[in-house]
Design goal:
Elements lengths: L6 H4 L6 H11 L1 H23 L31 H19 L1
Length: about 100
């Protein structure tokens, strides 16, 4: 008994690198969501301090324990800090610290 492989079965078309990556992303949607969240954090750190009032990152600058709203997109913590301002300041300070270490 001999196994015969037809020419059409042996010739598998190769996909480009971009097509392979897109197919991988379609199979792993959680990877895409995680990547988008990381990009969002980086964007907040890079441009967030330009659009957010950083004085709201100080304690007692807003009303404590507020849920997210139009004024406070991420709400406030129990010390009365705007969480978006805290996130923007923390990422900006980390970026400055990394520059100093070089």
């Amino acid at each position: 008994m001999a196994v015969v492989i037809s020419a059409s079965a042996a010739a598998v078309p190769s996909r480009s690198r971009a097509q392979s990556f897109l197919a991988y992303c379609r199979r792993n949607p959680t990877l895409v969501v995680g990547f988008i969240l990381v990009l969002l954090l980086v964007a907040i750190g890079v441009i967030g301090s330009r659009f957010v009032d950083v004085t709201n990152a100080a304690p007692a600058s807003t009303i404590p324990d507020q849920p997210p709203s139009s004024d406070l997109p991420l709400g406030s913590d129990d010390q009365g800090r705007d969480m978006l301002a805290v996130l923007g300041c923390a990422l900006a300070q980390r970026r400055q610290a990394m520059r100093m270490l070089r």
